[in-house]
Amino acid sequence: MIIQGCILNKNASELSFVNKYGGEDFSIFKGMSFTLRGLDNNGNKIIFAYDTLACGYLKIVVHKDSFTVVDTQQMPLKDGCIIIVDPTKISLSQAFAKYNIYYIAANKNNNVFFKTKPFEGKPNLLLLNDSTNVEGLNLEKWEQLKGRWFLLKE
Fold it and tell me: Which residues of the chain have pLDDT under 50?
């Protein structure tokens, strides 16, 4: 019985996230990704926002309590790169900050990838939009957690 409890506890943060946010419409993140890169000196969240045409990213600092935007900074990675500070990126960064996760990205098929733990590497949680549209996904690397939610196998 102890071993079974350890296995269940191993995925507790992912299951907690799914139970809390499983009903959310993550399709609003389609074609974009958001990464928590750290905290500033006041504990506010530093978020990098990317879109599919990224030649750079938008650095957005979101207040730790009110989730208001404290600062934005365009971060081009190439000469001539223009990064637009648009209301969609701002509002999505605020939504992302409320989830208390480290990464979210939705591909063109609206499959959504999450990192719920602070580690480098691949996302550890997947929300599969449509089981018939799995282009580019290797589902053998994922195990079903609950409904359309999958965990990356270790």
Answer: 1-7
- Per the listing, tokens 């208001």 go with 68
User: Residues 48, 76: contact at Cβ < 8 Å?
Assistant: no
Q: What is the pLDDT of residue 132?
A: 62
Would residue 15 count as lying in a domain? no
pLDDT digit string (tens) for 50-65? 987 678 899 999 999 9
What's the number of domains the chain is made of? 1
Spatial contact of 51 and 108, defined as CB atoms under 8 Å apart:
no
In a domain, 7, yes or no: no
pTM of the model: 0.87
Query: 109-114: which pairs have CB atoms within 8 A and are 24 or more residues apart?
Result: 109/133, 109/134, 109/135, 110/26, 110/27, 110/30, 111/137, 112/26, 112/27, 112/29, 114/17
In a domain, residue 94? The reply is yes
Cα(37)–Cα(19) distance, integer angstroms: 25
Contacts of residue 99, Cβ cutoff 8 Å, sequence gap at least 6: 17, 21
Whether 131 is in a domain gets the answer yes
Q: Which domain holds residue 120?
A: 25-152
